[in-house]
């Protein structure tokens, strides 16, 4: 990784030149990008209306200039587990900062801290300290809201989740409100909920949860394809780590995986939080009714051939996630995920200790992007958008994240042709990669 001195851009109009800028789904050769403080700006408006020239010019030296990566499923990193309830409150806040700052070195400028299935008291204690927060060099990557994975999951597909805390929603929304506490009604706390639609009471609650502005994702589930489609019709718009913690694809009942081939789902009335159409979409001009789906591209959780099949089936719905554990960024050893002890072996594979149950990954988001392009032979633009535009669309924040359009946050990456991180800007501030 090339490391350069940190550039002070505060309060300055900055023009990036000699770049291959990712705009409108393509790389534009020998192009330029303007930003001031935290926002990408329109150079024509700046020049013709305000008659201003840049205060600073940065030569990208033909680097790929792309939006910062978003990771919408990450359980922890650098020895820190977001679901660790045994820590004092001040340590929870401090640990959040450690992870947020550390992620910048991998080009991750925004993320959703992820909590595995836990007892209600864990959510009540931890959630107030993981609320949305703007990114900066001082704060680290932006917190986009929490992704809560459970506990309304199917015990048959518990994976690395503690079966003792899993529950159904037989009291409807009261079950959800009691479990997560006041955070469920706030607009700055929970971004994504992973649920199993076949669990008693869950399906009926999906419309209310979605109306609260929460992305409903389906996972850790034994749902049939019919039950999965009912989940989408109720308001679910995402699948959690496709192929993992769900039945394997079967030609008679494809389960949740079968949603990638669905042609009978109702066409969405709005583009918001739905994939844009592709060649495989039911309609070539309307939003794709099929959900987004997370994919862990570490070569362990999903075979490269399966990654390729998913990509060709539903390319605009693919969202790269790490599902990273507290062990990410650290050597092999024993770590924690919620109530479980996790063992990472010499091959960097994480199992629930004493079992062969996969317990999340140790991959970083930049490696996911590199692997995805390698596995699928997709274009560089498609690889980058799977970690930028698509996750932003999942959360409905593509006007500020995931693109380099005027008005977007100035979260910017310089990449070489191997998609290695060269420089990182978070809301217009350059990150000193020697420190992070």
From TrEMBL:
GO terms for biological process: N-acetylglucosamine catabolic process. Keywords: Carbohydrate metabolism, Hydrolase, Metal-binding. Residues 268-287 are annotated as: Disordered. InterPro entries: Amidohydro-rel (IPR006680), GlcNAc_6-P_deAcase (IPR003764), Metal-dep_hydrolase_composite (IPR011059), Metal_Hydrolase (IPR032466). The keyword Metal-binding applies. Its EC number is 3.5.1.25. CDD domains: NagA (cd00854). Substrate binds at residues 160, 244-245, 252, 301, 358-360. One of its GO terms (molecular function) is metal ion binding. Pfam families: Amidohydro_1 (PF01979). Binds 1 divalent metal cation per subunit. It comes from the Eukaryota. Zn(2+) binds at residues 149, 220, 241. The active site is at residue 323. It is an enzyme of class 3 (hydrolase). Its cofactor is a divalent metal cation. Belongs to the metallo-dependent hydrolases superfamily. NagA family. Residues 268-283 have a biased composition (Low complexity). It comes from Mortierella isabellina (Filamentous fungus). Coiled coil: none annotated. Residues 64-431 form the Amidohydrolase-related domain. It catalyses: N-acetyl-D-glucosamine 6-phosphate + H2O = D-glucosamine 6-phosphate + acetate. This is N-acetylglucosamine-6-phosphate deacetylase.
